[in-house]
Sequence to fold (878 residues):
Amino acid sequence: MILGLTRSWSLIGYLITAVLLLPLLALIVQATQPDEAVFSHLFNTVLPTYIYNSLQLMLLVGGGSLVIALPAAWFIARCEFPGRRYFQWLLLLPLAMPAYIVAYVYTDMLDYAGPVQRAMRAWFEWQTPHDYYFPAIRSIGCAAIVLSLVLFPYIYLLARTAFMEQSSHFLHASKVMGCGPWRSFWRLALPMARPALAVGVALVAMETAADFATVSYFAVPTLTTAVYDTWLGYGSLTAAAKLSAIMLLVVFSMVGVERFARRKQQLFQKQSKMSEADRYQLAPAKAWAAWSYCMGLIAISFLLPFVVLCTYAVDYFSESWDDRFLQYSINSLYIAAIVSFICVALAVVLMFVRRVSPRRSDQLASRLSSTGYALPGTVLAIGVLVPLTYADFAINDLMAWFGAKGPGLLFTGSVFALIFAFCVRFIAIAIGSLESSYKRISPSLDMASITLGQSPRQLLRNVHLPLLRKGMFTGALLVFIESMKELPAALLLRPIGFENLATNVFQFVSDEKLEHGALAAIVIVLVGLVPLIYLNRSLEQSR
Amino acid sequence: MKLLNNVVLLGLAGMTFSATAADPLTVYSYRQAFLVEPILAKFTEQTGVDVNVVFAKDGIAERIAREGRLSPADVVLTSDFSRLMELVEKDLVSPVNSPAIDENIPAQYRSPNHDWYALTMRVRNVYSSKERTGKIDIDYQDLASEQYKGKICTRSGKHPYNIALVASMIAHDGEAKTKTWLEGVKANLARKPQGNDRDQVLAIKEGLCDIAIGNSYYYGKMMMDKNQKSWAEAVYINFPNQQNRGAHINVSGMALAKHAPNKDNAIKLMEFLTSNVAQGMYAEVNMEYPVKADVAPSKLVASWGDFKADSLPVYKLAENHQAAIKLLDEVKFDL
Fold:
C-alpha cells in the first residue's frame, strides 16, 4: 500500500508461504509425470460427468448456504427479537457436526427403506415405489441441501461479523435519507458485506470441492471421487495429482471471477460500530418470523441429526462406550488448539504483509497460501508426507554421517505431520476471516501511524491487532472446529498409537455401523461446543 | 513467534520420546482397529510383546513407501486382496520363512514367493427375497438376464468388493463378455448403485428390489445386531455358481513390512494370526471363513451350509483389477 516494508517482513511472508506450499508443490511435481493414459481414459468415459457434478455442487452449495445464512446473519446482527442472544451461538452448532454424519443420518432417514417413507407406506398402504412420489434422496440436489445446512455457518459467522462491524454512521445516513430496513439492507449493508460474503462462499465452495465422504453417501460422483479412483483404483498418483490440479483451477477461477467483479470497490470505515440501540426492534409478527426461521434452521441442521445420534448412542451404548474417550478428547482438543493458534498467527503475518507491502509478489504469496483447503484430505496427506520424509531422511543421514544414531521419523512419526497438514489445510479459513476484517480497517489509520513514526511491528501490534481481534477469534474458532472434525489426513498421518475422536468414529463408519460410533460423534459435538460458546462470548464482549 | 517456536519444540520433544521406545510391534492396518485389537491383545497376553495399531482406510502403502528404511511398520494387515497386491507391487514387503505359517495356510491363499498371506475369506453372495424370490440357484452371469429387470440392488461398482467380483468375471469370461454382462446388470438395477452392503438387504426387506449382491459376513453381522436382525431374516443367502466354477472369494491378508524393525517378533505375530486361536477369533468376531482348514467357521456361518469356492488363484484377480475399473467406467455403472 504505502509502507516501504522492510525486507525481513516480506521474507517471513515468503517463507511461510513456501512452507505451506510444500505439499502442493510435491503434488504438482507428481502431476507432471507421465501417467499411462489413465487420464485420457477417464476423460473419454466418466470425467465430464464428474466435472459437471462438481461444478453444479459447488454452485448449489455456495448459493444455498448463502441464501440460508444471510437472513440469519442479518437477524442476529441487526435486529432485536426474543431469543436473539441464544440464537447467535446456537446457529454455529451445525459446524460442530461432521458433514458425513449429518449426511448419514439424513440418507438413512429419508431413503426408501428409511423410517419416513416406511411410515408413509404403512399409513397410505402403498406397496411399491411406483405407488407414490418421493424425491430421490441420493441425488445431487439433496447432497447440496445437506452440505449447505452443514456449511452455512461459515457464511453466517463472517456475514454476522461484517454486519456488526459496519459503521453506524452509514446506517444513520441511510435512515436520514429515508431508507427503510429493506432498502438499507439491499443498498447498503449487503454491498458493504460483499467481501466477507465472497470469502465465506469461497470457503464453502472449497470445502465442497474437497469433500468425499458426504457425496459418496449421496452416490454423487465428483472430481474428488475421480481423484480417489485414479489414485486407489488405477494406482496412479500422477493422474490423481492432475485431477487435483484441475480442481484447484476450478475453485480459483471462481474466486478470481468474484474478485475481478468487485475490483473497483473499496470500503473502509473508522470506528463507531453498531450499538445495541441501532438494532431494528421487530414487531411481534416479524419477531416471530425471525424466531421461527432461526429455530427451524437449527432444528434441521443440528437438533434433528443430534437427536438421531443420541438414540443410536442409547441403543448401542454397550458397543460404543470406550473408557479411552477422555484420552481421545484430549488428543482432539490439544491438536485443534495448537492448529488454530498457529493458523491465526501465520495468517496475521501473511495478511499484514499483504496489507502494507506495495510489492505484487507479496500479495500473491498470501493468496497462494490458501490453496491447501481445496485439496481432499488424503491427497493433501500424501503431499505432506513427501517433503517431511525428505526432512526425516536428511536428519537421519546427517546424524549417521556424524556417527550418531538417528532419531528415526522425527516429523512423520509424530504429531508434527498431523499439525502441519492441518495448518496447510485450514490456514485458508484463518486467512479468510482476517481478510474480511482487514478490508474494513481504513488505510488512513496506517498512514497516520506511520506519520507518527511507528515501525511496521508497532503498526501491527498497536493498531491492527486490536482492530482484528474479532476476525482472529472467528478464524480461530472455525479452524478449531474444523480440526476437531478433520478426518482423512488425521487417519493417515497420525503417529502410532494416536487416536482422537474423529478417527475413533471413522473406524465404525467405515465398517458400516455409525450406530456404534454415535457416542464418540456426540463427544465431538460436545467438546466442540466448549470453545464455540467461549469464543462467541468473546465476540460479544469485544463489541 | 517465540511462543510458536516453543510449541513446535515441545511437539518435537514429545515425538522423539515416542520414536525411540523401540520394542513393541507396529501394525499398519487397513482393517478397523476394533476388529483386530482383541486378537492382538491375545497375542500380547501370550507373548508379552505389545502391539500398536495404526488404522487407515487409504494410503498406507504410500506412507510406508515414503517412510522407506525408517518405517516403523512391522506387519501390514489388509481388508482385501487388492491392497495386498499393491504392497507387493510397490516392493514394500519382504518374504517370510516360516514353516508354521506355510502349514497353516493352504497354498492357493498365499503367495508362492512367501511375501503375502491371506488370513480370512469371504464370499460375494447373492441375497434373495424370502417372500418374492425364495432360495435360488443362481450364477453371477444370471444377474444380467432379462428376468431380473428392475429387481437388483447393489452398492457402488467402484467399491473394492465389486471391483474384485468384476475382475474375477474378466478372469473367467474375458473382457468383452464381462462388459456386456456389466451393461446387462446395470440395466437390471432397481436404483442407481448406492449405500453399503447392509443397505441392499434392507432394500429387499422393504420391497425395493428382490436380489442384492453382498459379502457373506454382513449377513452374520446383521443377524447379531438387534435392529438389523429383521433385515437379514427377510432374505436368503445364496452361494452363486455352485454348478460350475464356484462362488467368488475375496480375502483379507497380511504381509511383513520390508524394513520391519522387529522382524523376529513380527513373524511371531504372523504365525499367531494363522494359529487356531486367532483364526477362531476371526471366525467368531467377524463372521468370516478362516483360511486354516481345520478351524471351523462360527456356528451361524456354518449353518448357511457348505459351498463350492472359485478355485481361481487370488493373484489372477490382481491381474484384472485395473481392467475391471476401466470397464466399470466405460459402462458408467455408477452414473
